[in-house]
Write a structure and sequence with these properties.
246 residues; alpha+beta; Arc Repressor Mutant, subunit A; Beta-Lactamase; 2 domains; six-stranded antiparallel sheet; three-stranded antiparallel sheet; 9 helices; globular; DNA binding; Transcriptional regulator, IclR family; transcription regulation; transcription
Length: 246
């Protein structure tokens, strides 16, 4: 595939264009998109025009660019998380009905928790986890629940490269978090992302007893009822696992 003067391929440039859209920003001006993607304006215009012909991007009047509906359609049609989300949704709705708070579902992607589903209601506490959003393993109860049930080799690799950009958490602290979550069967973090909230998450295992997701809730710190929350989450996680096995 043809390369640019900088040596990157057409695929590289297309990926950079799509990744340039920030979370929560549905559209960008063509010039800003080129700047964010680090591409010349002429190359950006040509690629956007070609991608818009396939519905992957939408080029509007005045040079406004949006992600195309065709991109959303293709991703969701064959997403590897589709079966997981379908299996989890009834159980997530039950948990939310009881707690009236945020419920989320995450998978492990690299050293981050990638949130693939979230239910929330008006009046629930703040929750930084967004659908298709990511959080580092060490600041997310879902991330800790996921990593704590991975192989020792993967955990060792994660801890070896671990570095908190803010310098508040060491690898030894995270190692303690992971050991605690593995022993208890759930992970919890209080006031890490938001000072008034508490995150609790449990692993979801498939029919082969492999951890494929984490089911979590975010509740007010003052209303924390660990002895009631954990069994409810674990029961729901087992139900999701049975649906995946079927």
């Amino acid at each position: 595939m043809a390369n640019s003067a900088s040596g990157d391929s057409v695929v590289d440039r297309v990926v950079r264009l799509i990744e340039a859209f920030p979370e929560g920003v549905p559209s960008l001006q063509l010039s800003e998109l080129a700047h964010r993607a680090g591409l010349p304006l002429s190359s950006t215009h040509r690629l956007v025009r070609q991608l818009s012909e396939h519905g992957l991007l939408d080029l509007g009047a005045g040079g406004t660019v949006r992600l195309g509906l065709r991109l959303w359609e293709l991703v969701n049609r064959n997403s590897p998380t589709l079966a997981l989300r379908q299996a989890a949704m009834p159980f997530m709705e039950d948990i939310q009905q009881v707690l009236n708070q945020n419920v989320n579902l995450a998978v492990l992607d690299g050293w981050e928790a990638l949130f693939v589903e979230r239910l929330s209601r008006r009046g629930s506490v703040a929750n930084r986890a967004q659908i298709a959003g990511r959080m580092p393993v060490h600041i997310s109860s879902a991330g800790l629940a996921l990593m704590s049930h991975q192989s020792r080799e993967l955990q060792a690799e994660y801890l070896e490269q671990f570095a908190d950009p803010f310098g508040k958490v060491t690898a030894d602290v995270v190692r303690h978090y992971l050991a605690e979550a593995s022993q208890q069967g759930y992970a919890q973090l209080a006031g890490v992302v938001d000072p008034d909230t508490w995150g609790i998450a449990v692993p979801v295992m498939n029919g082969k007893r492999r951890t494929v997701a984490a089911l979590g809730v975010v509740v007010p710190l003052a209303e924390m009822r660990l002895q009631a929350l954990v069994p409810a989450l674990q029961t729901a996680a087992r139900g999701i696992g049975r649906q995946l096995a079927d």
